[in-house]
Hints:
- The chain is α/β, with parallel strands linked by helices.
- It has 2 domains: about 5-85, no CATH class; about 160-415, Zn-dependent exopeptidases (Aminopeptidase), CATH 3.40.630.40.
- Helices cover about 50% and strands about 15% of the residues.
- It has 13 helices and 15 strands.
- The longest helix has 27 residues, at about 90-115.
- The radius of gyration is 46 Å and the shape is elongated.
Amino acid sequence: MSRLHKVMNTIVWVIIGVLGIYILGYGMKGQSFAKAAYACVKALTNSEGSIRKAAEKSLYPGLAFMAGDREPSYSFEEFLIRQAAGLFPLYSYLDEKELYETEIESQAAYDILIEGGAHDENEIDERTGEAFDIAEKMEEENLQAAQEKEQEAYAQQSGELLGTQYTMEQLADFDFLKNNFYIVENNTDISGDVLNAETLLSKDMRIQGDGSEPQILIYHTHSQEGFADSVAGDNSTTIVGVGEYLTELLRDVYGYNVIHNTNVYDFIDGKLDRNRAYALAEEEVQQILAENPSIEVIIDLHRDGVKEETHLVTEVNGKPTAQFMFFNGLSYSKRNGVIDYLPNPYIEDNLALSLQLKLASEIYYPGLSRRIYLKSLRYNLHLRPKSLLVEAGAQTNTLEEMMNAMEPLAFVLHEVLGGGEIIEE
């Protein structure tokens, strides 16, 4: 409190003290307090004494000026009465209540401002210097954040960059490539001239057709292959049912024109017989290709056979998922060399397709794809440059695990057939 305020406060209390003595004097004379107070107010109203004149001339104008009221809106008498009334409890209560409510309202307004509920109509972007509506900007930013979150979730469902994207320098090392990406069966072999990453990855595996005619053929040389919970006689619970789901994904999600051939080649005269399955399948597939020359990709979908204690499963997007493996026939015997009676002019293309799919799997679904298996025979991979044999899961997997595997398989197929980036520049 300043010195001036102290002086003025002292003067006011002196005046109030005089009034108190005046009232007390009336009380000693036997008059009521109310009458004494009335007489006091009346005396103040009628008095032309020196105290009033001095206060009016010097004290009151100064008080009014400090209060911000250069033209006093009430009389000196009213001013003194207001000061005297402040001593009574009711007046003090009302005065404090008004102050409290004002503070609460101010705090609420402050809180709203801090929370962003109230704002100037326009703010200035410090970076651009342009005015913008902050509410609209917040709405846009929230919408953008929501969209980004949704896109992230979709990317994770469809396949996200979670694994390793290898460089050409790494893959150009034959030993690195062979040891990390392939299993070579004992009766065959492969050299760096055939397994050349630069050559295989330079091949364009993109589908050229527009989808107006069939582009992909899916079939099953071994249609009777089932799983741990397959139902006897129900093809929808065998590899055929799994192939149907892969067909739907490629057709409905990625827009390819797909034929799914469900004919049987390994069940002869009521018995399982795989001796001629590849020969029978080749004959019919050749006919389908003749009728549909637009087909560019052929997929022979199998399931593997493993020891009963082996379970080829991992987790993808929180779901148990059967692992799959790409398979190549080299038409090459370690003992006799090239197998002339099983010619395949597309071995290099077959290898290119499986390697590119394997690399895409390593990028988006690390651990899902097993190493590519190389075997000595041909396995009908000579029917088209983009011919592929897939071993998905095994007999110890459940149907659910197999179905779940088709979703990432369809995705990596689309990445390669649609021209996605599979190596780091």
